[in-house]
Amino acid sequence: MPELGRLAVCLALLCALVSVIVSVRGALTRRGDLVRTGEHAAYAVFGLVALAVVILLRALLSHDFSLEYVAAYSSSTLPTNYVFAALWGGQKGSLLFWSFMLSLFATIVQLQNRERNRELMPWVTATLMTVAVFFLGLVTFLTDPFERLPTPAFEGADLNPLLQNYWMMIHPPSLYTGYVSASVPFAFAIAALATGRLGDQWIRSTRRWALFSWFFLSLGNLFGAMWAYEVLGWGGYWAWDPVENAAFMPWLVSTAYLHSVMIQEKKDMLRVWNMILVLLTFSLTIFGTFLTRSGVISSVHSFTQSGLGPFFIGFLLLVLLTAGGLVAYRLPELRTSGTIESFFSREAAFLFNNLILVGIAFAVFWGTVFPVLSEWVRGVKITVGPPFFNRVNAPLGLVLLVLMGIGPVIAWRRATPRNLWRAFAWPVGSALVAGVVLLVGGIPFGGAWVAFVGGVFALGTIVQEFWRGVRARQAMLHESAPRALGRLVGKNRRRYGGYIIHVGIVSIFVGIAASSVFRIEAQQTMKVGDEMRVGRYTLRYDRIDSQENGHVARTAAVLPVFVDGRQIDTLMPEKRFYKKPKQPTTEVANRSTLREDLYVVLGSYDPQTQLVTIQAYVNPLVVWIWLGGLILALGTAVAVWPTAAEREVRVVAPAGARVPVE
Amino acid sequence: MLNQRRFVISAAVIAAAVAYLVYAGIRTTSTYYFDMDEFTASKASHDNEDLRVKGWVRAGTIQWDPHTNQLAFELARQDGTEPVNVSYRGILPDMFAEGREVVVEGHYGQGMLAAKQIMTSCPSKYEPKPGAETRAGA
Predict the structure, then answer these.
(1) Domain, as residue range, for A597
(2) Best exposed site among A23, A410, A578, B103 by fewest CB in 10 Å?
(3) Nearest Cα to B103, choosing from B117, B85, B86?
(4) Average confidence (pLDDT) over A527-541
């Protein structure tokens, strides 16, 4: 069986190569039959890679320890759901999985465009299959997951216990989905450049793909944060380490693109800029895969020294040179005549939003590669840590938050004073009131205060938009409020979906600001019966609770939690000792409420004396970050949902009664 | 085209602001990162500085007091030579053990490293995954 898997991968590589060559030839000679052949070859790639994935999965599930990959990342006692995680838990499997996703998306794109975009499609296919050739080439020649051991292992080494967590079941696939689907807008951009069809068509065709990719990048980042928070046990969720940054950078640039693309659709401006953002997003996804696999950046993570680095750099250079060359070649045609007329206009707000998002991406990039750069230039490795990223990104993020309130409601072209008053009187007023209330309530002026007030402002503009839209419908069409709200959103899904996403982002901002500024931390070594205080909580150490099975031994400290002398809960932070890879892990006990998390870690435990060291944190509003993610998901669903209403006749608003119509 | 110029200027202002934040951030927060060889060669000139050093926990040197959470050990090259004393107070990372490769971040002075944070790698046979490392300290 494994040999069949290897054969499937080799054939898939061959088909991908054929697809590239035939598609390009078909495009150049304008021969439809060749173009179709190229697409069929791409379908074959999908079939073959899917087969290889099934075979690898079967080997994992049947514990075929004659395979090096199976023996290295699973064991016979590994719970079945984590066996699935083992499919992407190791480098070789993850590259195969990546190829699988890519060929799946290529197939979907081709099915969507059987009758559409025929001029673009051969180039789209060729681009996607070029990426496939790269990844399948790695799987075939460098990281063969079907490699056999010289002698079959008796038992597997098991999956890293840190990865045996449900977030690891969904975090990598989300991130991969986001990464890989970014190739679709990229492929259309390349196709637009190659054919010279530089209008809106390629952008409209990939709007949903771009949003899809952005959405999964958002989820991937959030799931990663949740995983770090729940598993790593250091009380935080984001540490700015290179691997996190690798996923954050494409998200930032992708966010910028989703906004600037609206300017191109409405005003036919920023064509070059949009092109660059799409190409950059894709390049950053490749760069991100490179970071996580090469070990170039951080030696803290024991990245496998796999020698893949040069190949990724080579491919990245190929992408940048090709894309850059094409943009330079089409530059005269890409130039547009539109100019921004005023600082007080939506165009300007979007432009500033873009510059800041890209600025943050640049700062993150610079901080991430700085150790390598400094070593090249000065011969010493100099690192920057979380303080650098926080210091640079906090002010930029706060400006962005305020722009998020301004952008959606300020007038196009040039806002008049009357216009500004109408759009911002209420939001600014409520933000000022909130600011005073917060100051009186004991929140000092500072980063968190600005974040809260900015959040109220942004939220205010959104609520106002919904309110006015509903009122206008009610006044004109005599609809009930819920019905008016439903139809308002239903008829302008993209716009109101975007607003809902903004609400989620505000929630995330507030959660991050509160939990980073107002976090309380305490650490204490206790004997049985001792108490410790953290924030308004008192923890009492009652006893140790031990359990053991074949897979893992657990030691938990039993800690009743008191507030004002009344017991509200019992927390049991654990140490686990996995048997197979002899490794202890920390299991955090977290009592999560809307107001704050009480996050408790069993730092150490001494069996002789029964002494424990407890590390406890009170992290305010952390749940708001996860809730924000949920709202963001809801908004995205609203925005992408296909709707019949799109075709309906638009409501014409009489002067004065403004019904938002897109 | 007056407007166009104004926007180029404002974009440049934003770019300059980002550049300044990055520059100032790096100036105030960056630390040297040494492996044991580099550290041994240059430690005389880095007395009384914050830095990060990557090395191995020398066998037989770990002293851990569970009452006070006080840790002392020697950080050395892989073969155990050129050791330097490290002191640390706080919770031990899960993966901390004799012979392990660790990164110590802290203050170097009077021939000692006062660690603020100890980072341990996962055993090399495991794949790295986003953030797959354990931390201790703040």
Answers:
(1) 520-622
(2) A578
(3) B117
(4) 95
Looking up residue A107, the CATH number of its domain turns out to be: 1.20.120
What is the complex's ipTM, to 2 decimals? 0.84
Place of tokens 């190739």: A183
**Of residues A181, A170, A243, A237, the one with CA closest to residue A206:** A181
Query: What's the rounded Cα separation, in Å, for the pair A311 and A313?
Result: 5
Q: Kindly report, residue by residue over A281-311, the tens digit of the pLDDT.
A: 999 999 988 887 765 555 444 344 567 778 8
How much is the pLDDT for B125? 36
Q: Where along chain B do its domains lie?
A: 1-30, 32-138
A373 in a structural domain: no
The answer to whether the CB atoms of A228 and B4 lie below 8 A apart is: no
Question: Which site among B3, B4, B9, B18 would you substitute to test the A interface, given the most A Cβ atoms closer than 10 Å to its Cβ?
Answer: B18
Last residue of a domain, one of A122, A142, A159: A159
How far is the C-alpha of A353 from the C-alpha of A198, rounded, in Å? Answer: 24
Q: How many other β-carbons are positioned within 10 Å of the β-carbon of residue A70?
A: 29
DSSP at A472:
H
Q: Which residues pair with B75 in a beta bridge?
A: B57, B84
Q: CB distance B124–A302 less than 8 Å? A: yes
In a domain, A582, yes or no: yes
8 A C-beta contact, residue A291 and residue A297: yes
Is residue A210 one of the residues assigned to a domain? no
The per-residue pLDDT for range A30-88, each reduced to its tens digit, is 999 999 999 999 999 999 999 999 999 999 999 999 999 999 888 888 888 888 888 98
Tell me if the domain spanning B32-138 has CATH number 3.40.1190.20: no
Q: Do B90 and A160 touch (CB under 8 A)?
A: no
Tell me which of A131, A159, A187 is where a domain ends.
Answer: A159
Q: Are strands B112-120 and B101-109 parallel, antiparallel or unpaired?
A: antiparallel
Token pair belonging to A473: 């419908």
Q: How distant is the Cα of B109 from the closest Cα of chain A, in angstroms?
A: 19
Q: What is the pLDDT of residues B18-71, one digit of tens each?
A: 999 999 998 888 888 888 888 988 888 888 888 989 899 999 999 988 788 889
- Cβ contacts (< 8 Å) between B104 and chain A: which residues? none
Which one, of A182, A184, A202, A181, lies nearest residue A334 by Cα?
A202
Q: What is the pLDDT of residues B110-123, one digit of tens each?
A: 889 999 988 876 54
User: Both tokens of residue B50?
Assistant: 């914050």
Evaluate whether residue A205 is within a structural domain. Answer: no
Dihedral Cα A487, A493, A497, A499, nearest 10 deg: -70
Q: In degrees, to the nearest 5, what angle opens at C-alpha A630 toward C-alphas A628 and A635?
A: 90
Distance from CA of A86 to the nearest CA of B (A): 11
- Angle A13-A15-A17 from CA coordinates, rounded to 5°: 70
Please compute, for residue A599, the number of CA atoms within 13 A of its CA located in the half-sphere on the CB side: 24
Residue A603 makes CB contacts below 8 A (sequence gap 6+) with A523, A612, A613, A614, A615, B69, B90, B91, B92
Model confidence, pTM: 0.91
B120 Cα to chain A: minimum distance (Å): 7
The total number of structural domains that make up chain A: 2
The 8 Å CB, 24+ separation contacts for A641-649 are: A641/A493, A641/A497, A643/A490, A643/A493, A645/A487, A645/A490, A645/A491, A645/A493, A646/A493, A648/A491
